[in-house]
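Researcher: I'm comparing several assemblies side by side, and this is the next one on my list. It has 946 residues spread over two chains. Same procedure as the others: predict the full complex and return the structure.
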Amino acid sequence: MASLATAITSLIESKKYGTLRDILVTMNAADIAALFEDLEPEMLPRLFRLLPKELAADTFVEMESDSQELLIKGFSDSELKEVIDELYIDDAVDIVEEMPANVVKRILAQADPDTRKLINELLKYPDDSAGSMMTTEYVELRPNWTVEDAIKTIRRTGIDKETINICYVTRADRTLYGYVTIRRLILSQPDVLIGDLAETTNVISCKTLDDQETVAQMLSKYDLIAMPVVDGENRLVGIVTVDDAIDVLQEEATEDIEKMAAITPSDKPYLKTGVFSLYIHRIPWLCILMVAAIFTELVINHFSNLMSVQFQSFISAMLLACIPMLMDTGGNAGNQASVTIIRGISLGEIEFKDLPRVIFKEWRISLLAGATLAVVNFGKMMLMYAITYHNSFTTPDGVTHFTSYLLIAVTVSIALCCTVFLAKFIGCTLPILAKKIGFDPAVMAGPFITTIVDVTSLLILFGLALMLVPKMM
Amino acid sequence: MASLATAITSLIESKKYGTLRDILVTMNAADIAALFEDLEPEMLPRLFRLLPKELAADTFVEMESDSQELLIKGFSDSELKEVIDELYIDDAVDIVEEMPANVVKRILAQADPDTRKLINELLKYPDDSAGSMMTTEYVELRPNWTVEDAIKTIRRTGIDKETINICYVTRADRTLYGYVTIRRLILSQPDVLIGDLAETTNVISCKTLDDQETVAQMLSKYDLIAMPVVDGENRLVGIVTVDDAIDVLQEEATEDIEKMAAITPSDKPYLKTGVFSLYIHRIPWLCILMVAAIFTELVINHFSNLMSVQFQSFISAMLLACIPMLMDTGGNAGNQASVTIIRGISLGEIEFKDLPRVIFKEWRISLLAGATLAVVNFGKMMLMYAITYHNSFTTPDGVTHFTSYLLIAVTVSIALCCTVFLAKFIGCTLPILAKKIGFDPAVMAGPFITTIVDVTSLLILFGLALMLVPKMM
């Protein structure tokens, strides 16, 4: 893309507008928008004016909001009107939502009265609701029309409709009756009644205030390309299309990933986000978790004092050196469980009622995993004894305290097993409980699990050591 | 769902098949399939036989492969043939791919010769390729046909086509010429030529061997509901539809999340996966990372020996108690960067050429974040001094070594700052480099970053302490 940007720049500088137009019209809106992002901002207005009307509007929709704002500011009133008239209502609303107040005023002033009214209505729905993501451009048929009537209506009004692949059938009071696919229409005889043709059972619809993620999941689950949106009285007010649903699903996946990595989610692509904004999204959790680590510090302090009374210093040092391994393994084991569960919740596969099944499953996994890790760790520690620690456990007069080392190895291995057990348990229950009490599973469970597992694994290690390892070794 | 399952079970037991059928036909295929998963397996064949032919096939597609296998084994040959005849080819291929060899043989034997040939051809494409995900059922038109011819053809053949919302136009040698939407057809006069109506520039297509994730991203990027798939000679061989693209995108997001959490990805939902299989997907990384922690152990051992010569024991203990905080903060900072970059790569927002920009951005973020964390940590340590450590730094004869404590606090704060700096750098470069040399960014960067950051942060802490803190404190 970089080399295309260079070529385009030099064409603009040498004012070869004819050639530029020929290149641009062979491109897709999404690709032109991506190209625009690579160019100097002052070139955009000139290039944009070269685009044919429809392609211009499509490109405009695909652009980042910074560039849109820049273009709008450079538009004459008539240019602005031309672009707005070409936009689908839901795209227009998305753009208006991102613009500063003075630009919004200009946009609304240039939109024709009907469009203005629609935009204002759609702006009232809360962010992240089906209402804010729907479009009001769809084909509406009545049950008492014939297929011929319907096709005539579509011919007359259908050009501007965002999707006419599915037509919605409403009663006289505009309540939803059913739907009929365009394929069904085209395959039917002209005199058949729409009411007889329409699918009226199993009509999947959503409410204006439904959460957009739920709506997107439904489109995906039922393999739909559009879904009707109804108000409180079951009156059809809009449709949600699959292309917007994909965007929502992708955004939600990104948000979950960010939350699990202790980042406050942002809705802009990384390269478009400023350094300070990225910093602001990352620093709170870094600070909170750093300060939370005070608990591990206090635990270590407390027990190293105890151990300095009971153990020789090389024993304390050995136990302390195991801490990172223990904490990391615990963190990894907990994360594996929590991440699996959080994703399962997001995909609608795991619900609160599954909690006992999940706990039982993780319990069995942690038995297997804990045992494996304990055995591997024991083997590793015995190997380390043969190579390194042998001397520490031999007194100057030649007595070898092999049993003591064995007890330490056993202690660490048991602590490891318990830690894995506990980490998996916390990792699988915390997200489900968080969801149940109305918190975000990814936020609650992701960042906190490590801290909780850290502290408990230390308590287990030191507690066991003080119990099992012989005093004054 | 649980209560519906109970109700259905009791209806089956009391053999109220009429009522059952009445309930089932009001439900969607996806919901029936979900219900089936909650029932006892031996009830499935009886329930399945109650479904009308088309709904039965749709439900069959939505079911888990275990249940599909169970049903197929219970089918008579003619029942099996009926279901297969109703399936779209791409769904049939998906099912065949999951079945054991003897079941595959039965399916192929019951399929009619044309279907069998198609299934066998599609099975040849590699997993995860566009070819394996496409369907061969689409509407194909010729440029020299009129709209009337086209509509007649669609009426004659369109019933079974997976999507007739977009018709593809091919030349006599079946190379792709362009496409025409059904909306365009229906809005046009009957005598217009398809060749004049078809969109022939900007026809987005993919090749049979293209990666399915790339193809799904393209459908999302260009807001398509279907995309043509061509072979090496640009001949149309199939189409990929948006519902399959959504599934691929969701699967890939799940896989990325799993890989970042050190899990080998599996393609089954959590609740459907056996304990042993989950264990096998999780244990390798747990073991590898546990054994890799041997490096942190060696570093701590080495330096605690050095420190026991140079520092009084409570200084060593203080520094050791800081380790979990330092390692966790480093791990969190690195993860924030790596996870953002990995998701950016997956969404196609970040490429290798962006590496310098990414590094520069993370460099500035880490300056801000490192400085903030260092200041907060310094404040926290001074507070701890006032509360707890004051006594340790006062000799029995009353002399207070406040300067020494100050130097330790400075050491830990600088180490923290350096660790964040390094963690962000590794976190942002490792995924991009991994991608460049052909490794999976999520696998390479996710699990390893913690281990790398652990070791380096310890080296920084101990190195600084030995340099800055006065000897024999």
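Model: For your comparison table: The first strand of chain B starts at residue 138 and ends at 141.
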